[in-house]
Amino acid sequence: MDSVTTAVTRLNSGVDIPLLGLGTWKSKPGEVRAAVEAAISAGYRHVDGAFVYGNEAEVGAGVASCLAERVASREQLFVVSKLWGKYHAPADVKIGFMKTLTDLKLDYLDLFLMHSPMAFQNEGDDLWPIKDGKILAADVDYVDTWKAMEVLVKEGLVKSIGVSNFNIAQLQRLLSVATIKPAVNQVELHPYLPQPELIEFCQSNNVVLTAYSPFGSPDREFKNEKNDPCNLLQDPVVEAIGSKHGKTSAQVLLRYHTQRNIVVIPKSITPSRIVQNAQSFGFTLDGEDTKKLQGLRRDWRACDWDAATTSVHPNYPFDS
C-alpha cells in the first residue's frame, strides 16, 4: 500500500513529485515553521509555498531545522514556490525567483510555478497593485515570462517548472511554444469544482495537476440556491463515504484526488490534522463513491481573484 512517503507521480521532467504536500497559504508567521517541521516529521516530503504568501523565510527555517536534525535529506524533499505577477517581465523573473530562494535559504528549488498567467505592474512594495478596487495589469505576455523561467532550469536553479491557475486555452498556447514543457498546473480542485475538462486536457498532455483548496477553502463560505452555507467537509455525501471507509471527510477528499494521480496540498497548522492527512492513503474509493462525489459538482470557485476579472486583465483565466 502507498504511504505519504512512497506515493509519488512522475513529472514530464523525469522527476517524481509526492502526491501529498503541505500547503502553506494563509499559514501565519509564528505558525508555519512548526507546521513544516510537523509535516516532515510525519513523513511529508513535499512543501508548497509562494512568495506572495509572505512566510517563505519561516518555511525555509522549518526545512532547515529538519535537514539539520536529519529528519530528511535535501534530496528527499520536494520544495515548490511560485513567481508572483509583479515579476513577470523577463528581466524581473530571476529577481523574483532569487527573493524566494534567499528566503528559503536553499540552493535550488524542485518546482517553480508561474502563479497565474496575469502580469501586474511592478512599482513600489505593494504585492497587489490595486486602484479603485481593480488590479493594475502589466502588458507582459506569459509566454515571454515562461521563456525567462526556462533559463532558470538551464542554470540549474530549479529542476522543474510549471504554471498555476491556467485554463485550457492558455495552457494549450504555452505548450505549443515552450522549449521546456510545463510539468504541473496547480489549480483549485474539489468536488464542488471538479473541472473534468481541465483534468482530461492536462493528463492527455502529460501535465500533472496539483489541487489546491482540496477541501473547498472552508474559511470562504459557499452558499446554495437556498442561500444556505455549504461546507464541503460537512457535506452529507462526503461524511457518508467517510463513515463507510472509517475515514474522515478530509481523508476522503484527499484520496479522491491522489487515487487519480492528482497531487494535493492541504494547508494545516495543526499537527494532529497534518498527521491525519498523511493517513489518507491505504484505502480505495470505489465506483459508487466516485460517482457520488462527482454528483456534487456545482462549479463553485472559492478563489476567483475578483480584483482582476476579464474586464480588468486580458489574461484573467476563470471565465472559460
UniProtKB/TrEMBL annotation:
Entries under InterPro entries matching the protein: AKR, Aldo/ket_reductase_CS, NAD(P)_OxRdtase_dom_sf, NADP_OxRdtase_dom
Residues that hold substrate according to the record: H115
Superkingdom to which the source organism belongs: Eukaryota
Keyword Thylakoid attributed: no
GO molecular function: alcohol dehydrogenase (NADP+) activity
Site (Lowers pKa of active site Tyr): K82
Name used for this protein in its record: alcohol dehydrogenase (NADP(+))
Annotated organism of origin: Petromyzon marinus
Protein's gene: LOC116941196
